[in-house]
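A favour, since you know our structure tokens better than I do. Could you add the entry underneath, on a fresh line?
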Amino acid sequence: MSEPLRFMPPEEQARANFYGLLARLFYAPPDEPLLKALAGTDELDAEDETLAARWRELIAAAALTPAEAVREEYDSVFVGTGKAPVTLYASAYSLRYTNETPLAALRGELAALGLARRSQVGEPEDHIAALCETMRHLIVEQRRPLEEQGAFYDRWLAPNVEALCAAIEASERTSFYRAVARLAKAFFSLEQAAFEML
């Protein structure tokens, strides 16, 4: 017998969708269909005006930027030749890990949650896309309590995302991804505030 469907509050689905979108945008540059889909979305009906404004910026950037230009931007900023100008690995932004092994700790925590990196994925688990996808999974797939979501967020995202978004915004090579970073920063700020209220 199949498991009964459980209702998910709209705000939780919206949170999961934001994490899913950020995971997708940070994992690889969006293709033409995704850019068109973003450009064609409605304005965000959000109580937080900053988040709504940042969503409008992303819609505009998606409408104005060809997929090839976004791909070139992604490659030049996050891939580069040699060391990338901006790294998408969260541990790089956290000073507390200078004498620790964050990937081992993260892998242990993911294993405790029943999660592991797919064998065909070459990126380490602290890639911002993987962390966002983990949060989406905790919300939508595992339906973890907010306290558990908050514990994961506090340990792996909170210490790093502000510096990551600031690095993307400050880069002279970003245009489309500046809009992505500004949206991410606004969303993460709301998440941080919500978890602090628990």
Q: What stands out?
A: The two ends are 36 Å apart (CA to CA).
